[in-house]
């Protein structure tokens, strides 16, 4: 009998594809991608990739055609499929926002009362405004939403924004955020035990990659007079490693610090007398 494989659906080409493939490669999973291939099997991990349009991914995972999928939360939430979100992946970050013509005076959400809004996300748009007691008419269109106000289709739009550049070049301004989105790993909610086991292995690898991305390896020199002060600033995974240097009274300290408070810690280290500070990226971090 063939050993069990898990089947994962990823976007064939678009704003999720590159980062999705990069993540699985960083997890040490080898596979061929690119070209016109719609399906490929990894040579060193029990996983099969399906390359699809992103809109089809939640449905395939719900139906069990694929066991897992990578999808933007925005698409998932719009269609309310019965699947589990097993991991937030931290890439393809964007927001679903309401935008109006730049020369309009925005008076708060009441501005939208009774208005026509063009969007590819009618459910999320209506749910958000309805909660605020605002009734609108949504017009569902699948692309180039930002053109709607200038051609008289709607007075406002609700669309995906990352930098706001597209809105600006279409004479629109962003006035309210409806939903913050990122890529998520979804799973069919009836995986058998063998597949759950493969998923657990995959999640362990993703966690290790993500932890590495959120941390930096720091090496520095310190004089013994400053050692206590500097050690206190470096929590590390347990505590910093301290190694004596050939120069008497000097030590080399190795530690891991989080990306979030990186600059603050570096500044405090310098003030505390740290010298020759080296900062290195971490490829993976296994706990
Ligand atoms: P497909 O051909 O697969 O249907 P698509 O055109 O519907 O692709 P893309 O534009 O590739 O979709 O976007 C896929 C997802 O990437 C979106 O659903 C959203 O989650 C995210 N995304 C969209 N725009 C941006 C952006 N400007 N920056 C970052 N992420 C984005
Ligand atoms: Mg799509």
From TrEMBL:
It is found in: Cytoplasm. GO terms for molecular function: ATP phosphoribosyltransferase activity. PROSITE patterns: ATP_P_PHORIBOSYLTR. Gene3D superfamilies: 3.30.70.120, Periplasmic binding protein-like II. It comes from the Bacteria. It catalyses: 1-(5-phospho-beta-D-ribosyl)-ATP + diphosphate = 5-phospho-alpha-D-ribose 1-diphosphate + ATP. HAMAP family: HisG_Long (MF_00079). Catalyzes the condensation of ATP and 5-phosphoribose 1-diphosphate to form N'-(5'-phosphoribosyl)-ATP (PR-ATP). Has a crucial role in the pathway because the rate of histidine biosynthesis seems to be controlled primarily by regulation of HisG enzymatic activity. This is ATP phosphoribosyltransferase.
């Amino acid at each position: 009998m063939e050993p069990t494989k898990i089947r994962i659906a990823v976007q064939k080409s678009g704003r999720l594809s590159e980062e999705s493939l990069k993540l699985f490669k960083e997890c040490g999973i080898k596979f061929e991608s690119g070209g016109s291939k719609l399906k490929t099997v990894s040579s060193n991990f029990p996983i099969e990739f399906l390359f699809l349009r992103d809109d089809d991914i939640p449905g395939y995972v719900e139906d069990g055609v694929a066991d897992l999928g990578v999808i933007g939360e925005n698409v998932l939430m719009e269609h309310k499929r019965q699947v589990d979100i097993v991991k937030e992946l931290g890439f393809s970050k964007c927001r679903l926002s309401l935008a109006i013509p730049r020369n309009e005076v925005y008076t708060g959400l009441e501005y939208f009362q009774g208005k026509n809004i063009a969007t590819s996300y009618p459910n999320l748009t209506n749910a958000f405004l309805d909660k605020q007691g605002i009734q609108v008419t949504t017009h569902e269109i699948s692309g180039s939403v930002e053109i709607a106000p200038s051609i008289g289709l709607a007075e406002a739009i609700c669309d995906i924004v990352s930098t706001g550049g597209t809105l600006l070049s279409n004479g629109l301004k962003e006035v309210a955020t409806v939903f913050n989105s990122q890529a998520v790993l979804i799973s069919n909610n009836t995986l058998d035990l063998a597949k759950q086991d493969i998923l657990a292995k995959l999640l362990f690898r993703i966690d290790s990659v993500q932890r590495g991305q959120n941390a930096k390896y720091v090496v520095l020199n310190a004089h013994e007079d400053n050692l206590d002060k500097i050690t206190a600033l470096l929590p590390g995974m347990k505590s910093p490693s301290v190694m004596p240097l050939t120069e008497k009274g000097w030590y080399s300290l190795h530690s891991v610090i989080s990306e979030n408070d990186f600059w603050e810690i570096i500044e405090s280290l310098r003030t505390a007398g740290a010298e020759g500070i080296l900062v290195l990226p971490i490829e993976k971090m296994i706990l």
